[in-house]
């Protein structure tokens, strides 16, 4: 079974990319997340039967042999696809216009910094001579128009214009696009924008005019991204961030928008656990103080020393390792002698596993202490690159409940970062 899917809070670029991929991969099944952009919901309410989209609970994921992922490169942003992450024989194709590093390892990658992901797929459809219906062409063009601001955002490229021209040739209907791309802007959104304008402040950072605004909201509010875009234009700044705090649900939605080249809002949002591209991004933060979120954004904007800290600044080195044929009894002696709770396992100088004190609980007989460490080590070793951030290391450790990560470069272990190292970073205990 082949399936095509995309990120939660699916927008028109994501939906259009899913449908375009089903044309490019005949026989594939389009799978949409539960959470959809309001405009996309409205479009699907009329066109769902024509597009034949399905939800993940309507299929058996164990039957999936090929996964086509569009407009995202992060497992956590897919809807209920976690079980596929550990499927060894799964073939993955990835199409994305976000060029930041993600955690989906694909067999095939098509990633270019164009205005919309569907631009890449439309180009391939044209080259392959695939036929599009007017409805399909209209949806694909809606995806391009939404992510490029009707071809006006600075992220727009010549490739987006060529793709738009091709889709207009295929009878894309601009009247339908204008109907469904109208932002859902009502009384709630007007009230929030008015409050933001009352509290508007501007400052300069790295040569750009910035505005950060904190607003309390009650319950779910649609189209906050539209509010931030309007706020950016009215206040006349280069970059705007909206921090929308919902005390009832104990979370903050952070939305960033940029109107200039040279400022990557997406990188700021990724540092906060979200995602995006240079001109737009967002992050959902739970159980946080809005004032702390603002301070965090300012820290990242100003590029102070912690915002620039990398794993290579925190890791311990050189790293003590043991070969995979070392007896468990010897490993126990090494752990006691070194005073550490775990150590990487190598074979021919390549990392192949990790052993920790917890793994010794599996030893039930004295004779098992003579067994090689490869019999008890954790085979699926998680590693991190030296250029990654401490926040990324902390997320991996929390998610997988592990206490240390080998730092790997060119498939060689060059250091190790532990929970203690991460805590030194988070509690501002970095050496001067």
Architecture overview:
The protein has helices at residues 12-24, 38-51, 117-128, 134-148, 158-169, 174-180, 187-198, 224-235, 265-271, 290-302, 311-314, 328-338, 390-400, 419-426; strands at 2-5, 29-30, 66-70, 91-96, 108-111, 203-205, 208-216, 239-246, 251-258, 275-277, 280-286, 322-323, 342-347, 350-356, 404-409, 412-418. It is an alpha/beta fold and 432 residues long. The chain folds into three domains: 2-180, inorganic pyrophosphatase (n-terminal core) (Alpha-Beta Complex); 187-302, Roll (Diaminopimelate Epimerase, Chain A, domain 1), CATH 3.10.310; 312-426, CBS-domain (Roll). Strands 6-7-8-9-11-10 form a six-stranded mixed sheet, with helices on both faces. A five-stranded parallel sheet has the order 2-1-3-4-5. Helix 7 (187-198) packs parallel to helix 8. The protein starts with a strand and ends in a 6-residue tail after the last helix.
Radius of gyration: 24 Å
Which whole number gives the mean pLDDT? Answer: 86
Number of strands: 16
**Unreliable stretches:** 304-308, 427-432
Tally of helical runs: 14
Entry summary:
The chain is an alpha/beta fold. 35% of the residues lie in helices and 20% in strands.
What key phrases describe this protein's structure?
single chain; 432 residues; alpha/beta; inorganic pyrophosphatase (n-terminal core); Diaminopimelate Epimerase, Chain A, domain 1; CBS-domain; six-stranded mixed β-sheet; five-stranded parallel β-sheet; 16 strands; 20% strand
């Amino acid at each position: 079974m082949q399936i095509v899917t995309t990120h939660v809070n699916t927008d028109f670029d994501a939906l259009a990319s899913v449908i375009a991929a089903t044309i490019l991969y005949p026989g594939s099944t389009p799978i949409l997340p539960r959470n959809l952009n309001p405009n996309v919901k409205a479009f699907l309410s009329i066109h769902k039967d024509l597009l034949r989209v399905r939800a993940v609970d309507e299929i058996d994921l164990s039957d999936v042999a090929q996964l086509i992922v569009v407009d995202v490169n992060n497992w956590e942003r897919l809807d209920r696809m976690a079980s596929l992450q550990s499927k060894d024989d799964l073939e993955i194709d990835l199409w994305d216009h976000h060029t930041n590093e993600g955690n989906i390892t694909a067999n095939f990658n098509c990633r270019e910094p164009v205005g919309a992901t569907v631009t890449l797929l439309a180009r391939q459809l044209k080259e392959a001579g695939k036929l599009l219906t007017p409805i399909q062409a209209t949806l694909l063009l809606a995806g391009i128009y939404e992510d490029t601001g009707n071809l006006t955002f600075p992220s727009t490229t010549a490739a987006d214009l060529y793709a738009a021209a091709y889709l207009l040739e295929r009878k894309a209907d601009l009247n339908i696009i204008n109907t469904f791309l109208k932002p859902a802007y009502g009384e709630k959104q007007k009230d929030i924008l008015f409050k933001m304008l009352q509290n508007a402040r501007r400052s300069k950072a790295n040569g750009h005019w910035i505005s950060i605004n904190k607003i309390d909201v009650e319950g779910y509010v649609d189209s906050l991204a539209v509010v931030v875009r309007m706020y950016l234009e009215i206040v006349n700044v280069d970059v705007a961030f909206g921090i929308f705090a919902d005390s009832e649900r104990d979370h903050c939605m952070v939305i960033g928008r940029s109107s200039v080249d040279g400022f990557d809002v997406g990188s700021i949002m990724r540092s906060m656990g979200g995602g995006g591209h240079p001109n737009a991004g967002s992050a959902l933060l739970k159980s946080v103080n809005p004032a702390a979120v603002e301070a965090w954004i300012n820290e990242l904007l100003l590029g102070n020393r912690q915002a620039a800290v990398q794993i290579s600044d925190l890791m311990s080195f050189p790293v003590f390792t043991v070969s995979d044929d070392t007896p468990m009894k010897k490993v126990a002696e090494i752990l006691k002698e070194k005073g550490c709770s775990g150590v990487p396992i190598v074979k021919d100088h390549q990392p192949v596993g990790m052993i920790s004190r917890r793994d010794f609980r599996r030893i039930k007989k004295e004779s098992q202490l003579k067994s090689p460490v490869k019999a008890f080590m954790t085979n699926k070793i998680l590693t991190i690159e030296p250029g990654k951030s401490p926040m990324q290391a902390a997320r991996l450790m929390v998610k997988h409940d592990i206490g240390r990560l080998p730092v790997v470069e060119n498939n060689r272990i060059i250091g190790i970062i532990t929970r203690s190292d991460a805590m030194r970073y988070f509690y501002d205990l970095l050496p001067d």
